[in-house]
């Protein structure tokens, strides 16, 4: 693929750190922040507009088709969104980095095979790869993480491979080898600390993508299953009620957009600071 | 050029073979592919019968060879739910996805290129900076949200356009815009960068020195040279549009391959899902190849350097 090493002008960083921090706080303290039980149904308070009260329940952002408080579902949805994204970034990051480092250090057949698999996986459009994997494994929150880890590790492997190759020839690594460091110690103590910067940049940029993927899969009904509140599945309900209850799709989508936007701005800023060989 | 072409074709073939292999083993990852195909209430006897009739009782290498041989002949297997060849089902739906991707490409180019050119030529202006922020925001926009917002505004509030199905040409407008917005950002960025790359070059100064006006210089010289990266990125973007159609088609109930895939997963019709994914991957690999060839055709340094990937 043609390298996209474009200078990316980006918005100022300062508004987006508080936004991201806000989402993280909301996710961590979701049970304390949510005004109502996200799963509590109120069949007499269905599809209430934002700011209305029905049967002693005040709906700040309105209610959904089962009379559940939309705000509470969005607050709890932040938890799912961030948890899935963090878990899949960590899982794919560890798998990819380990395989990339091994491929570079061992070289030979091992390296060739690993990097060929990387090329092949990267040549499939990610959403299609995720969909066929879900079709095999079935939906559900754990499977979403497995799917995302399985489909996204090559991004890290490619970066780790390139970075490790540039490190292995360094004198300090040869000295470490002379002093009898085994392969695990070599990678963990000597290679990893020197390549972690670009890996973290990739992880940040991937994080926004993982949030979108989880929401997208859940929107298609292939991700987090109801009644667990996920922004994607709330949006898919909102699509069905779009003509009568505009708020159901509007608010979770706005949260999704703001979260992904702030992660992307932060990721791009990080990339510009660390730079070189991260993409 | 011939050697380069052969090398890249060979790479693409290897990638296609790799994708087919990956999909083959993915389907067998859970151990028993029959479980993916059988209805949920099938008895063990039913499963065994299915296993034999579909050939899953044969040794794995035999199944694999058979699978690859079928693919080479364009045989994607049979749909479990409908009992007809997967290739036929896909052929019936493919035109819809192609129309949608085409419409999205028109939207993306029609909005993205002028925006990108403006940002490149008038890089310091307020308008360019505001556009840049918009383009940046556009990249973080989930299509399933922007699609719903479009339905809300143009379909429901204003009542101008149909919001689902594919009954008339006007049905195509909203899905095309929703799908095209993402690529629009890419095109705007590429066009801007490409113009910024060209502007400081000597031929621009020469044209201006000859007395050619600023506008004419851009139109006659800068745009032509700047078009090169845009064209090859367009090939890559088509692959992204085809993949992105999965979600947009679901939002707008557009009867293309994306909707087919989601319906097939819910109907537990694995061969169809597999067929669409193989086709999508093949399209992505081929478009990637096209992008590389376009790029090297206009920039010999790439093929002389020997590394186009």
Automatic annotation (TrEMBL), chain B:
GO CC terms, sorted: plasma membrane
Transmembrane segment boundaries: 9-27, 98-121, 133-160, 172-191, 230-252, 272-295
Superkingdom of origin: Bacteria
Keywords on record: Cell membrane, Membrane, Transmembrane, Transmembrane helix, Transport
GO molecular function: dipeptide transmembrane transporter activity
Keyword Nuclease: no
Protein name: Glutathione ABC transporter permease
Organism: Roseivivax isoporae LMG 25204
Upper taxonomic lineage: Bacteria, Pseudomonadati, Pseudomonadota, Alphaproteobacteria, Rhodobacterales
């Amino acid at each position: 693929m043609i390298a996209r090493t474009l200078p990316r002008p980006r918005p100022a960083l300062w508004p987006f750190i508080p936004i991201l921090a806000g989402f993280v706080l909301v996710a961590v303290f979701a049970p304390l922040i949510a005004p109502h039980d996200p799963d509590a149904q109120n069949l007499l308070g269905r599809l209430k507009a934002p700011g209305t009260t029905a049967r002693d329940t005040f709906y700040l952002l309105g209610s959904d088709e089962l009379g559940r408080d939309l705000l509470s579902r969005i607050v709890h949805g932040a938890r799912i969104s961030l948890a899935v994204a963090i878990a899949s970034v960590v899982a794919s990051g560890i798998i990819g980095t380990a395989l990339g480092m091994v491929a570079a250090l061992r070289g030979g057949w091992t390296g060739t095979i690993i990097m060929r698999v990387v090329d092949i996986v990267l040549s499939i459009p990610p959403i299609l790869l995720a969909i066929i994997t879900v079709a095999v494994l079935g939906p559900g929150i754990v499977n979403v993480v497995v799917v995302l880890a399985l489909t996204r590790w090559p991004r890290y492997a490619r970066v780790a491979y390139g970075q490790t190759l540039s490190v292995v020839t360094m004198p300090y690594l040869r000295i470490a080898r002379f002093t009898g460091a085994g392969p695990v110690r070599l990678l963990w103590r000597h290679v990893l600390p020197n390549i972690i910067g670009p890996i973290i940049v990739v992880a940040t940029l991937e994080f926004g993508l993982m949030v979108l993927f989880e929401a997208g899969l859940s929107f298609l009904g292939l991700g987090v299953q109801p009644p667990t509140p996920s922004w994607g599945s709330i949006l898919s309900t909102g699509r069905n009620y779009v003509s009568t209850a505009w708020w159901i799709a509007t608010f979770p989508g706005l949260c999704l957009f703001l979260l992904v936007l702030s992660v992307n701005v932060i990721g791009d800023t990080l990339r510009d600071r660390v730079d070189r060989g991260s993409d | 050029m011939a050697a380069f072409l052969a090398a890249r074709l060979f790479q693409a073939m290897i990638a296609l073979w790799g994708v087919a292999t990956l999909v083959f083993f993915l389907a067998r990852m859970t151990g028993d592919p029959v479980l993916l195909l059988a209805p949920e209430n099938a008895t063990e006897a039913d499963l065994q019968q299915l296993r034999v009739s579909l050939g899953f009782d044969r040794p794995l290498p035999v199944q694999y060879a058979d699978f690859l041989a079928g693919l080479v002949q364009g045989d994607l297997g049979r749909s479990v739910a409908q009992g007809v060849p997967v290739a036929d089902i896909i052929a019936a739906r493919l035109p819809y996805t192609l129309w949608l991707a085409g419409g999205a490409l028109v939207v993306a180019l029609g909005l993205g290129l002028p925006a990108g050119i403006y940002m490149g030529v008038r890089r310091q202006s307020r308008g360019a900076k505001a556009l840049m922020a918009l383009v940046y925001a556009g990249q973080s926009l989930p299509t399933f949200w922007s699609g719903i917002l479009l339905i809300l505004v143009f379909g429901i509030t204003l009542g101008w356009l149909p919001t689902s199905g594919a009954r008339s040409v006007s049905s195509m407008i909203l899905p095309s815009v929703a799908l095209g917005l993402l690529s629009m950002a890419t095109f705007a960025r590429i066009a801007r960068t490409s113009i910024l790359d060209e502007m400081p070059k000597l031929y621009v100064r020469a044209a201006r020195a000859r007395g050619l006006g600023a506008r004419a210089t851009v139109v006659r010289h800068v745009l032509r040279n700047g078009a090169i990266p845009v064209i090859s990125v367009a090939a890559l973007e088509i692959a992204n549009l085809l993949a992105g159609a999965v979600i947009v088609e679901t939002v707008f109930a557009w009867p293309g391959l994306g909707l087919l895939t989601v319906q097939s997963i819910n109907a537990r019709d694995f061969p169809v899902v597999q067929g669409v994914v193989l086709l999508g991957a093949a399209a992505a690999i081929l478009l990637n190849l096209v992008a590389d060839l376009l790029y090297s055709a206009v920039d010999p340094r790439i093929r002389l350097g020997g590394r186009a990937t």
